Structure prediction request, 205 residues.
Amino acid sequence: MSRSTRERIVDEALRLFAERGYSATSVAEIEAASGLSPGAGGLYRHFKSKYEVLAAAINEHAARTRIQVAESLAELSAMETSVALEERLAHVCRAGLAKVREESELTRVFFRDLSQFPELVAVVREGLLQPMFDAIVSWFKEQPEYHDADLDWTGIAAVLGGSVVQYRLFQETIGDVPGHAEKDQFVAAWVRLALGLLPSPAPVG
Prediction:
């Protein structure tokens, strides 16, 4: 499906912001990358300013994340409990890694430029990050194996979800994985830690 002009502007602007920085990217460059005549004002038929393009990109990514999280939870909930818990956990971890990787351009913009736009930082926090943490809490609470675990799931989601986010951010900023642990190693360790949350069997007798 071909992208609309508006979609091209948002997508290409985010790519350029990620590569060059918000301040270093001109409206004319966004227009050229979007297939418009640079400097002819085509961007202003869809947006009032360069900032409005950035805000649209952030808000649209947040809206898409909410939909993706809901769909992922539905898909994960549909997995039969006959599927081994280890496999379900690995699926959750890999889905999180894939989502953070999908947002790599936005991540670079976030760290380089968004401190000057606190209102957009709030959108990233509440629209992209918090839904991921909430999804982890919801998923664990739904699994029968964890029903009897009296745990602080919000804190646990911060640790488990935070490690997933940090793994990908480390790659984006440092150019290597943390501790040289490849993805399969990370997922296996993540699953092992999550299995450690299982309630201990009640003593017999």
Q: What stands out?
A: The two ends are 65 Å apart (CA to CA). DSSP finds eight helices and no strands in the chain.
